[in-house]
Write a structure and sequence with these properties.
- The complex is a heterotrimer of chains A (97), B (115) and C (156).
- Chain A is an all-alpha fold and 97 residues long.
- Chain A has one domain (2-79).
- Chain A contains 3 helices and no strands.
- In chain A, helix 1 runs antiparallel to helix 2 (26-50) and helix 2 runs antiparallel to helix 3 (56-76).
- Chain B has one domain (2-89).
- In chain B, 77% of the residues lie in helices and 0% in strands.
- Chain B has 4 helices and no strands.
- Chain B has helices at 2-29, 33-56, 62-92, 101-105.
- With 156 residues, chain C is of the alpha+beta class.
- Chain C has 2 domains: 2-44; 58-155, no CATH class.
- Chain C is elongated.
- The chains are: A mainly alpha (97), B mainly alpha (115), C alpha+beta (156).
- The interface between A and B is large, with 51 and 56 residues.
Chain lengths: 97, 115, 156
C-alpha cells in the first residue's frame, strides 16, 4: 500500500509537471509549482516510511515551509508579468465599485 | 487488532493515491486558471489528510505520530493561504475568469467581468 | 504578558515534539532559542491576541470538526464534477456579506472558504468577501450563512 501510494504521488507530480509545461498563463505555472511542492512533502513522508527512516519527516516539514515562502516570494514580484491588459486598465480590476 | 488498524491505514493510503490522481487529471482538464485552482484544492486537503492519517494508522512511535500531526496542521493552514495569495494576485493583475453562460447574460452580481 | 507566556509555552512544546531529546545541553539550547524567538517577536510587535489566539482554544476544535465534515462533502462534489467534465461546471464570481467584526474572525472565515474545495476567496472588501466558486450551488450554500454563523459564534 505504501509503495502504491508513493507511485500514485509520483504520477500526480508528473501531471503537475505537464500543467507547468503547457501553461498557458504565468499563474498556471505557479499553480503547478505549488502543487508539485505539496506533493513533494507527501512523497518525502511516504518515502521515509517505505525506507523505514521516519527522520525524513523533519525534511518534509522544512520543505513545506520553503515551498510556501517561495510561492509567496514569486507572487510578490509577479506584477510586471501582466500581458493581457494594458497597465492603465489594471487599477479598476479587483476594486470595489 | 494491530493488523486490522494498519490495513485500514493501507486503505486510506490507497484511497488518497487514487483521489490524488483524479485531482491531477482535474488540473489538466478544467478550462481556466480559477477552475484549476479548485481541482488543486482537492489535492491539498483531502489527499494530504488521507495519506497522513493513513501513515498515522501504520502505528509508528509516538514522536513520529506527533510530527505527522504537525505536518497535517501546517499543510491545512498554509495551503489555503498560498492559494488565496495566488488567486488574488492573478485577479488583481487582470486575469479574467471564464464564467458560466447564464451568469454572463444577467449582469447583476458578478463584479469586474461585467464591466 | 499573558500572550508572551502562552507563546513561550507553545514554542517549548513545539521544540520538544520536534527533537525528543531531554539532555541538559539540548534543553539549555532550547531555552536560548525560545528566548531569542520571543525577543524577535516582541521586536516585530506581533505578540497579541491575533498571533496567539488563546481565547479560542476550547472553541476551535468543535468548529474544525464541523469544517472537516464540510471539506469531505465538498471534495466528493468536486471529484464528481472532474469526471463529469467541463459541461457540468458553472464557474461563478460573487460577493457575499459577512457578519464578523474582528479581523481574526474574518480571516478564519476566508480561510475556511478557501479550505473548502469548490470555493476560493479572492479578496475581502470591508464587509463583503469576493468568492470564486466552481458551481453556482456552492455560492447558494454560502449565502445561506451556516458557516458564517458558526464563525461569528467563535468570536464572542
Amino acid at each position: 500500500m505504501l509503495i502504491a501510494a508513493t507511485l500514485a504521488i509520483l504520477v500526480v507530480m508528473f501531471l503537475a509537471f505537464i500543467r507547468g509545461y503547457i501553461g498557458p498563463t504565468f499563474y498556471d505555472r505557479i499553480l503547478a509549482v505549488n502543487m508539485f511542492g505539496t506533493k513533494t512533502v507527501l512523497f518525502i513522508c511516504l518515502l521515509g516510511f517505505v525506507m523505514g527512516r521516519p527522520e525524513f519527516l523533519d525534511i518534509a516539514m522544512v520543505y513545506a515551509l520553503i515551498n510556501f515562502i517561495s510561492v509567496i516570494a514569486i507572487l510578490r514580484y509577479s506584477g510586471s508579468f501582466d500581458e493581457r491588459r494594458p497597465p492603465g486598465n489594471r487599477k479598476s480590476i479587483g476594486r470595489d465599485v | 487488532m494491530d493488523v486490522i488498524i494498519s490495513s485500514i491505514g493501507g486503505l486510506f493510503l490507497l484511497l488518497g493515491g487514487i483521489i490524488a490522481i483524479i485531482g491531477g487529471i482535474g488540473v489538466l482538464r478544467f478550462p481556466d486558471f480559477y477552475t484549476r485552482m479548485h481541482a488543486a484544492g482537492v489535492g491539498d486537503t483531502l489527499v494530504t489528510g488521507l495519506i497522513l492519517v493513513g501513515l498515522i494508522l501504520q502505528m509508528p512511535e509516538w514522536l513520529v505520530v506527533i510530527k505527522l500531526i504537525i505536518i497535517l496542521f501546517m499543510t491545512l493552514f498554509i495551503n489555503p493561504t498560498s492559494s488565496h495569495a495566488l488567486t488574488k494576485t492573478a485577479f488583481q493583475n487582470g486575469l479574467l475568469p471564464v464564467l458560466h453562460k447564464k451568469e454572463e447574460a444577467n449582469k447583476g452580481d458578478a463584479g469586474p467581468s461585467t464591466r | 504578558m499573558k500572550h508572551t507566556i502562552h507563546l513561550s509555552l507553545a514554542l517549548a512544546l513545539f521544540w520538544l515534539f520536534n527533537s525528543g531529546h531531554t539532555g541538559l545541553l539540548m534543553l539549555s539550547l532550547a531555552a536560548g532559542s525560545i528566548i531569542f524567538v520571543v525577543y524577535i517577536a516582541h521586536k516585530m510587535d506581533v505578540v497579541d491576541h491575533e498571533s496567539t489566539p488563546v481565547h479560542l482554544t476550547f472553541k476551535l476544535p468543535g468548529y474544525y470538526a464541523w469544517l472537516i465534515k464540510e471539506v469531505i462533502l465538498a471534495n466528493i462534489t468536486v471529484l464528481k464534477h472532474i469526471w463529469l467534465g467541463n459541461e457540468s461546471i458553472s464557474p461563478t464570481l460573487s460577493r457575499i456579506d459577512i457578519s464578523q467584526t474582528t479581523v481574526l474572525a474574518k480571516v478564519i472565515y476566508a480561510n475556511s472558504i478557501t479550505l473548502t474545495p469548490g470555493t476560493i476567496s479572492v479578496g475581502i472588501e470591508g464587509n463583503r468577501i469576493l468568492v470564486h466558486a466552481l458551481l453556482q450551488d456552492s455560492i447558494e450554500d454560502l449565502k445561506k450563512g451556516e458557516m458564517d454563523r458558526r464563525v461569528t459564534r467563535l468570536e464572542n
